[in-house]
Amino acid sequence: MLFHSVGLTTLASLSAAFVSPTAQDHTSSNPYQDRQIQAALEDRFSLDPIVHSNGIDVSVDNGIVELSGFVPTLLEKSRSTNLSELVRGVSVVVNYIQVRPTPSRTDADLIRDLRRSLLEDPATELQELDVSVTPGGAVTLSGSVDSWGERELAELVVASVRGVTAVQNQLQVRASGNRPDAEIQADINGLLRWSIYVDHELVRVRVVNGVVYLSGVVASAAEKKRAWLYALRSGATKVENELEVAHWARDASFRGKKYESITEESIAMAIERNLRLDPRIASSEISIEVRNGTASLSGIVRSLRAYRSANLLALETVGVNRVKNHLKVRPKSREDIQLAQAVRQALKRDPHVDRFELKVSARGGVIYLGGTVDSHLERAKAEEVADRVWGAIDVANTIIVKRETAVSFDPSMDSSELTTLSLYEGSGPRATHIRDEVIEANIEDLLRWSVYVNADRLAVVVVDGAATLSGTVGAPAEREVARRIAIAGGAAIVRDKLRIEPGTIEASYVR
Hints:
By secondary structure, the protein is α/β, with parallel strands linked by helices. The chain is 32% helix and 26% strand. The relative contact order is 0.12.
């Protein structure tokens, strides 16, 4: 058993602002037919309650996906990229989609909402940032921050405001005693080695004068992006992402090496590193205890978002099967009336839930949400918006979902924080009105095309809305992805009969 106590800093949800690399970065060997990849992408978009598939055109050439057309929000454009990168066979995503908000907004209204969003987010409220807007909703973000994580987080906050069509990020990262190259390289290697989402064996990291060079091979476009994000978080001044995507690299033998002879002490140290590099958990003191695959977190954080982020980052660590989150949220004091009003305004600024008449109240720092939305993803999105407002210590979400639909969602995607919210957790099994055969087909399709699951070893049976998953998985993380994909496919409840394949990557815990 290990008891680890450390001083920490925070994380950003970086990926919503990410622009995919150019088509030259792909590898030519692709076992998946372009027309099959295109059909899988069209299925993802048509299932998704946020992405408006009717306005998006998809073409695929040797695994290179090109997206074009028009969508009403910048986050929708970003989400279409992230959905695409999670499909097997996709090497590169080039996104030419244009953002056309409906209705358009005046520059004055947009500036007001942008400044308010930056002030309300606990991770950006104290930063010296400035925003300007050009006609058509293009935003320029200027000023200075302490890290690349804070830079990308500020961009995400701005991109999440209704009416924004593009973001030009001119934020300067303040030098804070330039980190040695060896230290940066060690952090990146550690993040890659302990991430459940990256097979690190074929990835090479080189750091020269603060510039990070990533080379080697990964199995998916999603892995390539995640490696890039890890490099940015580690204090790099620049990242040259030269990784190639080769689909043969999705091999159980590579993943298996992550789980060889790991100790509880090394798991706790990996969680510590992940949290230390996360800008959302700044100035926190967190104790980490790991035992039998369960990570227990205790201490004090300054925001509800920091609480969520710590939980998520621990779950993304190799060897962690479960997280007990005993962190206490102790934000700056705020009157409940002011807190409730701030949440109402934040919901109206969000382009995905602004159209709903949601009820908001607050008591003792706990935000109570009520009303009706169309999908579980929108329900979770409303909760995410609420817990980003400073002063909140918890969110009680009683929003009702009008329509039971499948959700094209993967827990490793852009808003992966949503997996800790009401999309997957709540007061019990979801009701569903989707036919069993439709749910089963949805789940099988989502599993087949997910870059993180080996669907050939899984079986799905749905009876009365309950999905039973059986077969073998290569790791606890793969089991969790499969379970959540089943819920995303429309299952009211999931019966997990999956087992970790003996002798492959079963963890050997040394106590």
